[in-house]
Backbone:
């Protein structure tokens, strides 16, 4: 069925939304149903997000605490389940470089020619722009190491460190035995 321009013009009884849509297409009952479907979908999404968060916490507790502790108590590093899946203990390595230790970390890296993993930035204040052309430059030096880069670097150093000389405390190293599932 075709709609004429006259069908699109609002009458005094039509709402604003009805003025935009052809009367034959608009159905207030359908709109209300769709709005209810939207609210239910949002509520379900919130519940699913909470379920995922709760499940991830449970996985962390099982894989990082309970199962590694129990496997260590009985002297196992690997366990094959009836269905063929394997549970293996692996060490997850975490590292961090808090700002209060960054200068020491940078010095250690520079002494060993590893400073390239750090990103350094200089920030110049706009209010000191005149000083750029005059006598001095005012700036702030910041340095950071991307967490993935730091983690990879620390894992390499630990693997190449049979004498345990790597400064674990300086780099905030934390090794967590973790149970992982594989086929």
Residues:
């Amino acid at each position: 069925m075709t709609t004429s321009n006259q069908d699109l013009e609002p009458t005094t009884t039509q709402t604003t939304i009805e003025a935009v849509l052809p009367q034959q297409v608009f159905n207030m009952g359908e709109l209300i149903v769709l709005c209810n479907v939207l609210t239910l979908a949002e509520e379900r999404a919130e519940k699913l997000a909470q379920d995922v968060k709760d499940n991830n916490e449970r996985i962390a507790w099982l894989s990082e605490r309970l199962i590694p502790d129990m496997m260590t108590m009985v002297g196992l590093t690997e366990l094959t389940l009836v269905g063929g899946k394997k549970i293996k203990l692996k060490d997850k390595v975490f590292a961090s470089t808090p700002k209060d230790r960054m200068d020491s970390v940078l010095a250690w890296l520079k002494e060993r020619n590893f400073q390239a993993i750090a990103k350094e930035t200089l920030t110049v204040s706009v209010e000191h722009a005149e000083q750029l052309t005059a006598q001095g430059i005012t700036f702030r030096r910041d340095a950071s190491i991307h967490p993935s880069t730091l983690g990879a670097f620390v894992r390499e150093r630990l693997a190449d460190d049979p004498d345990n000389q790597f400064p674990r405390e300086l780099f905030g190293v934390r090794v967590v035995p973790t149970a992982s599932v594989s086929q």
About this structure: The mean pLDDT is 83. The helical segments are 5-8, 16-20, 28-73, 102-111, 129-133, 147-159. The chain has two domains: 1-76, 77-183. The chain has six helices and five strands.
